[in-house]
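Lecture notes, continued. The same structure-token format from the folding unit now serves as the input rather than the output. Read the line below as a description of shape only.
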């Protein structure tokens, strides 16, 4: 239902924000 869809969207948005927030650190780790 609409409520479940909202929760899923929120979860994906939070996951995206976390991935973007950690991206610079991950890139720094990849560099020699």
């Amino acid at each position: 239902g609409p409520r479940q869809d909202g929760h899923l969207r929120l979860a994906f948005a939070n996951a995206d924000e976390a991935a973007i927030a950690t991206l610079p650190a991950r890139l720094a780790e990849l560099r020699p």
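Point for the exam: The chain has a mean pLDDT of 87.
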